């Protein structure tokens, strides 16, 4: 039986007068990788931003180990152990690799031991600590964005389109990292369009349509019925 870590219940959110999330509910278990699938505009990114407090919920609840997050200011959510890697990475391009990681470490007061553990996951970054992050390749920038997020030692990791525009080798490295974090007890909520990139690492898949969660199934069930991807995502 799944031990619940993060619970989203009846969540509603809007951009101005445009409602994007409509009474959405889902649960993320401990050491689980849950993939969010849906068409463009379905509300996947908005859901991650609402969990992080970057978009304010108009109703509903986001609870981490029973503690309510929706009333917290956005900068407090990472301090409770929720890390976010947004689409497009959002690195501090003028800062070095080391300085970007340091920003993650400061969020929850982590130190050298955490820094070393993060760099062990991404050895290429250890070779580029003094390099300006804006000069890294796309794959290296994605690794750095994940390293900065993991530097807070999160309980939950939110990843938005982490494989977008990357070479197969970089995609494989990101997938390996998600699997490694699951082994360490970190749960991941993963937004992806590339179904083939996430099925090897996901435990369950939640389909989102028009701001609502319409179905959550195990990966084995999805493999038996791949038409489901075409139905809810429009690809496959």
Plain-language structure description:
This protein has two domains: 4-81 and 154-232, Rossmann fold, CATH 3.40.50; 91-153, no CATH class. The radius of gyration is 17 Å and the shape is globular. It is an alpha/beta fold and 236 residues long. The chain contains nine helices and ten strands. A six-stranded mixed beta sheet has the order 6-7-8-3-9-10, with helices on both faces. Strands 2-1-4-5 form a four-stranded antiparallel beta sheet, covered by helices on one side. It has helices spanning 44-51, 97-107, 112-121, 123-126, 138-150, 168-183, 195-198, 219-224, 227-232, and strands spanning 4-15, 18-29, 33-37, 57-64, 67-68, 82-85, 156-160, 187-191, 204-209, 212-218. The model has no long low-confidence stretch (mean pLDDT 90).
Main attributes of the structure:
9 helices; Rossmann fold; alpha/beta; 236 residues; 4-stranded antiparallel β-sheet; 6-stranded mixed β-sheet
